[in-house]
Amino acid sequence: MKTTLTEENYLKALFHLVDNEGKVTINELSKFLNVKMPSVNNMMKKFAEKKWVIYETYKPLIVTESGKREAALVVRKHRLTEMFLVKKMNFGWENVHEIAEQLEHVHSQIFFDKMDEILDYPKFDPHGEPIPDKDGNIIAQDLQKLSSCEVGETVIFASVTLSDDAFLSYLNDRMLLLNTKVKILKIESFDKSMTIEIGNNKEILSKKAAEKILVKK
């Protein structure tokens, strides 16, 4: 049975909110989706019937393995689309999210399989986030926030936690792109802003920006 657009939006929210124990609360979903809690409760009852979640009143939801797979497959469509727009249509990484939001609801599996093939089976999207495979499996990454790094460390910019247009344009202006080497030169004790070195350039990042940048050593 095909999932509806609304169901896919809920599945994607579960993907982003579920904790390491496979749990998420109705309140978290309500805030994330900006949907009233009675509506979320009704949808989760439907998800329970589909065996995607275990639903008990006044308890956190438990997302089942089936639910995690369904959620990952929606995210797969979104991230593949973003990669296609960047690699094959020359969109900037800051201009693909809204288009992918629309195309992720296309139900044709062969469409996304062909997209995957044309892209030569990418493992990550343009923002450094892993693309789930056809079975919903995801590559585990050992990343940390740039804000947690120390002076003198050199790290690789691997991903972002926020892919909205304004933040990505902010990174573009500073030539801070994926796979760029970043050296931490100074951290201000007052506001934790960070002076970094990118190639031959120096930039100052706010703590807020540094917390949204994920790096690997």
TrEMBL record:
<keyword id="KW-0678">Repressor</keyword>
<dbReference type="InterPro" id="IPR022687">
    <property type="entry name" value="HTH_DTXR"/>
</dbReference>
<keyword id="KW-0963">Cytoplasm</keyword>
<feature type="domain" description="HTH dtxR-type">
    <location>
        <begin position="1"/>
        <end position="64"/>
    </location>
</feature>
<dbReference type="InterPro" id="IPR022689">
    <property type="entry name" value="Iron_dep_repressor"/>
</dbReference>
<dbReference type="GO" id="GO:0003700">
    <property type="term" value="F:DNA-binding transcription factor activity"/>
</dbReference>
<dbReference type="InterPro" id="IPR036390">
    <property type="entry name" value="WH_DNA-bd_sf"/>
</dbReference>
<comment type="similarity">
    <text>Belongs to the DtxR/MntR family.</text>
</comment>
<dbReference type="InterPro" id="IPR001367">
    <property type="entry name" value="Fe_dep_repressor"/>
</dbReference>
<keyword id="KW-0238">DNA-binding</keyword>
<dbReference type="GO" id="GO:0005737">
    <property type="term" value="C:cytoplasm"/>
</dbReference>
<dbReference type="GO" id="GO:0046983">
    <property type="term" value="F:protein dimerization activity"/>
</dbReference>
<dbReference type="GO" id="GO:0046914">
    <property type="term" value="F:transition metal ion binding"/>
</dbReference>
<keyword id="KW-0010">Activator</keyword>
<dbReference type="Pfam" id="PF02742">
    <property type="entry name" value="Fe_dep_repr_C"/>
</dbReference>
<keyword id="KW-0464">Manganese</keyword>
<dbReference type="Pfam" id="PF01325">
    <property type="entry name" value="Fe_dep_repress"/>
</dbReference>
<keyword id="KW-0804">Transcription</keyword>
<comment type="function">
    <text>In the presence of manganese, represses expression of mntH and mntS. Up-regulates expression of mntP.</text>
</comment>
<dbReference type="InterPro" id="IPR036421">
    <property type="entry name" value="Fe_dep_repressor_sf"/>
</dbReference>
<dbReference type="InterPro" id="IPR007167">
    <property type="entry name" value="Fe-transptr_FeoA-like"/>
</dbReference>
<protein>
    <recommendedName>
        <fullName>Transcriptional regulator MntR</fullName>
    </recommendedName>
</protein>
<dbReference type="Pfam" id="PF04023">
    <property type="entry name" value="FeoA"/>
</dbReference>
<dbReference type="InterPro" id="IPR050536">
    <property type="entry name" value="DtxR_MntR_Metal-Reg"/>
</dbReference>
<dbReference type="GO" id="GO:0003677">
    <property type="term" value="F:DNA binding"/>
</dbReference>
<comment type="subunit">
    <text>Homodimer.</text>
</comment>
<keyword id="KW-0805">Transcription regulation</keyword>
<dbReference type="InterPro" id="IPR038157">
    <property type="entry name" value="FeoA_core_dom"/>
</dbReference>
<dbReference type="InterPro" id="IPR036388">
    <property type="entry name" value="WH-like_DNA-bd_sf"/>
</dbReference>
